[in-house]
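S.,

Sequence below, as promised.
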Amino acid sequence: MKPRALLVATLLLTSLSTGRSWAANATIKDGSTLQIGSVTYRLDGIDAPAIDQLCIDEHADAWTCGIEARDQLTKLIGGREIRCDDLGADPSYKKRHLGACRIEGDTTSLSELLVRQGFALNVESSATGRFETEEARAKEERQGLWKGCFVAPQEFRTGKKDGALLGGSCPADRDKEIREALFPEALAMPSGCNIKGKFAVRARVTGNVGIYHLQACRSYPALTEPDRWFCSEEDAQAAGFRRAYNCRAGTKTK
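The prediction came back faster than expected:
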C-alpha cells in the first residue's frame, strides 16, 4: 500500500474506533431516529412517538403525533448539517447506533431540543436527570404531546393499552374513550408506510413481540386491522417484529 493511502486508511480506522463525529445532511426516519450516510442513529436519552402513534389533543380529538414528532425534528434541523457522536450499538437493536447529535455549530443536543418542545420524553433515571428539567417545563407549559393525552411511546410500541395516561388533558371519567382513541381497531396507515404489524404470542418463540407482513406476503390481504404500520423492514425489526413466514423468498421492500 502506498504511504498516502496507508495514512488515509489509518486515520479512517482511528476515527471510527474513537467514535469521532461527522457532520453531514441527515435523513429523518421518525421523531428520534435519523440516518447519516449508511448509519442510523437513535437519539440518546430520549424516546419519541413512532410514526403511526396517535395522541389526543386539548380538544379531545385524535392527532397523528408520531408524524408531527418526525416533522418537528425535520424543522429543527432545517436542512443544516448534523454532527453525531457515535455512542455504539443501540442495545434494543444492534443494527442501529445511539447518537449524541446536534446541529453543526450548536452546543444544544437534538435530544434536549425535542424534550423542550414536548415531542420527546426523557428516558433516563432521576439519578442522571439529564433532561428532567426540560421535560418538567414542557409538561407545565403543555408543549407538544403534553397539551393533550398520550401514552409513553414504548408502551404504544408494545401494545400496552392499560399503561399510564400522560398529558394535561386526561379526564378520569373519559378513560375508556381515550384508550380506544389511542389504540383504535383500525389504525390508519401513515403515508408511505404500508408494512402491516400484528402483535402475536407465537412471535415470542423467536424473541419478538409481533409479526410484520409485506405486500408480497400471502397473509397481507387478510390482515385488515393491523396493530402497527412500518415504513421499512428495518423499522419493523427495530420495533421487535419478525417477518411472516409466508412471504415469497427474496422479497424486498423500501
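The chain has a mean pLDDT of 89.

Coffee later?
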